[in-house]
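[audit] Reproducing an earlier prediction to check determinism. Same input, same settings, fresh worker. If the tokens differ from the archived copy the diff job will pick it up downstream; this log only records the rerun itself.
[audit] input (458 residues):
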Amino acid sequence: MSTTADASAGPATGTILCPDWLLTDANTEPEAGHAVRVVGGVVDAVGPRGTLTANHPDDEVIDLPDRIVLPGFVNAHVHMYGLLAHGIPQDAAPAGFWSFLEKYWWPKVEDGLDHEMVAAAADWACTEMLRSGTTTFLDILEAPNALPDGLAVQAEAVKQSGLRGILSFEATERSGSKVAAAGLDENVRFIKACRDSEKRAGRTTSLLSGLVSIHTLFTCSDTFVLEAFDRASELGVLVHAHCNEGVYEGEWCESAHGHRSLEHYDNLGVAGPNFLASQVVHLSDAERRILADRNVRCSHMPLANGEVGGGIAPIPELLDAGVTVGLGSDGYVNDLYEVMRGAFLIHKARLRDPGVMNARRVLEMATTGGAQALALDLVGRLAPGWSADLQVLDGRFPTPVTASNLAEQVVLFRSGQHVESVMVSGSWRVRDGEVVAGDPESQRARLHQQALRLWSAA
């Protein structure tokens, strides 16, 4: 059904949100006393409260004293199934990144997942993201025993939540050629199913979509990588791959091919704007130049990189070089306020420079930067014609809020617990702290049950 108003019915009525502060964009000065008007899923206007209410006297007006309205977050990299591993019993911590994959993550987590586990994790992850201000996300599922239709199972949870979700299956040859082919097929089938659903509903866009995902160069042959990019090109979607998350991939690639990972992607002819490289922790100077010169999109997971001992990605340097970078949780800590705080602090420590990664830059990665990394149009900003994806945040700080300090106050001193309401494409998904669709307590109980199943098998 079209959201365009019938001209014969007169002007469309909307909703006007009137907070103390409106932050329309990470790089725009916040405005006190400004409001945002939402009509039919998009932002219709922003401006002084008095002007909007006078121009639209029939609109619903929602007063939000002591509150901040800002864009919803874009989580550019999440593994929803990762929730099942939170607290999993371990005999000992992995000795390094390769050990983490080979002895822990692959055998004890990914290879044990089935549809019931994937569904329970997706349900709770969507609630967790909504409660902390995320309105859009990219998920990467790797679960060989959840093929086929693992993505369809996740999609049901995403639809119920009302989030904007891009879903993908991380195809890899580590489990053999049949599983690898099935992984690519899973991505293609899901992308086509989303588009068919749009056509049946008479829409040109949908909250649910897909892309093609592969794991890494050390688990995917050149032939397989090229096939993934060819199939993505036919569908007009991105290809995502983990890239140099630990030292292992770059060193492996040098040993196997005589050059590093991004040099290899470049030699294959696929390093470009259709490539989304996540992690990008260990980069040579040549690899940094490739990211910038070829307009490769990237995503940054500061907390998860710390958890696996991967290292700290050179994000300030990439941003200075013009690389598009989004911010992601990696399924570890899904509250992007916490992730932003990590990005704000960790690079200052690495570079021993308190001036790098200011709050506006970090907030940009969590909003418009994430949207650009995922090749999404009209997402991540509150401007006329852009999607009405927003959050209402408690703005009662210990010290006064000003236009010059609001971004820093938000990044440093807010968390998901301060998010009161969330709107996705013009629909409230959280109101006054309550999730509109779904029952969080039953979701939690279901996740406990499925986590124990996984842990027992591990």
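[audit] rerun output stored. Observation attached for the diff report: The longest strand covers residues 60-71.
[audit] end
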